[in-house]
Fold:
Amino acid sequence: MQVKFDFLNWRPDAEDLRNPGLTTADNVIHDAEGYKKVSLPTSGAFATNQPVSNDFTACLDVIYKPIGNSGELVAAWISNSTTTTAALRIGAVSHVGHFTTVSMATLASINAASLDFFAVAQLDQQFVMSAKCTASKLSGGSTAYSAAGTVAYSITSV
Amino acid sequence: MSKPSFSNAFVFTGSGSTSMPDATVAGAINRFIVIGLSGTASNKAYSVQWCALGDPNDWPTSGTDDARTKQSGVQVLNPKHGKVTGIAGNDFYGYIFQQNAISKATYIGGDVVFTFDTFEESRGCIDYDRFAQVDDLIIFQSESGYHALQNDQITDIGYGAIDNSYTPTTETSPVDVAKNQSINTVFFGDHDIAYNYKTGQFTRIPHYSGNRYYSIDSADGIIGQVVFSSGAIDRQIATDSGAAPATATVVTGDFELNPGGRAIVDAARPITDGASVSSMKIGVKDLPSSSVTWATGTALNSRTGMSNFRGGANKPEGRYHRAEFIFTGGFTTITGADFEFFPAGKL
Structure:
């Protein structure tokens, strides 16, 4: 005897018994024709002189958000790369030099750091960004340091 | 609102300082940037402020003549609904999300500038920017699940599907929320959830460990991921073609092939276009509460396309069956599966 089952909706909340859909649907994407495959990411093209990349070896946390409509990204990240001073940085990812640094307390060694928020909004050819991070020192207990900063950029044709 | 196209023909200019207050969230409504205020001062977490008309660099002090002239202002929302967690807008109105409420901000001009109508007092945006906006459609996460907001109407899209299994989490660090409008899909990074808002279906696309999602707009791409490895940082795109396919896993629910009786699955075949199944298993149990025993099938027969189970040491015999398909070689589309079986009595 033969029976055919259509793979209906992924419904992990439903009971396994007589669940008409799928209980697992990993690494597939749904569209009108059914479930489609997902390929692994392909190597991109971050030049080494990009600001986030420069800070990578001591980049403790980073958030990216898109801006515009051509895949441009802006980012907020926590850097501890060049000195023992941790810094919150906010900037445009693909445009060298266009980021701002918000200094934090001088920390000999960062135990942990994370971004609390990263707000981005765009109005015509101007956009604003605002971020805040919190870091704690490796030694010296649970003292927390925080920094917040806001930056505004305009986009102009060259 | 028209958006500029970014390319080498454009540069960023500006400075690291602005008169804009520190903001937890931000969005554009009409000709204003509207922000949620950051800080511990009274009411700040429940307040929004908007800039001078058409000028994100001008944030006059609220209540002054300068602010009134430029239509800039502040609105304190009801603290009982939690902090402001998201702002989504268009040319005419916007939505202000709190943790347990949604208010509609409508531009009316004059000294009032915006009216605020809190039309939802239960579902809100669970944390900062946990929503994706596609034109006037907003997909967001509340503390109870996943929802869609459009034209002031909220639909509980995750109810009965994933809300219990993948309840949105409150994280100490912002969670990635991204979209790819070309494939009608938004992504929530806390549970690696993908949601196609045209078909109304969810799936999962796990991150690389420690990576971040970002939005793209590509018919060939799925989602952008920022990859950290070997001291380098790379912006990558998971595409629909070109690169090696990610290992896909689909598992069915439990079904009764012989209602009221037992059955033995003889063979199974995925219904796919261009599939390369690396592993196919049939799970068996006799009671709904029993644990599942798995039987692994043979490689697909080149003539029938079926994986056979009859020759295995543990034939998939039982009252309830489920099937697991693992694809390592990619496929175009998978829509279902055929099963060959024969009844095996009542007891």
In short: The CA atoms of residues 105 and 145 of chain A lie 7 Å apart. Chain A has a mean pLDDT of 72.
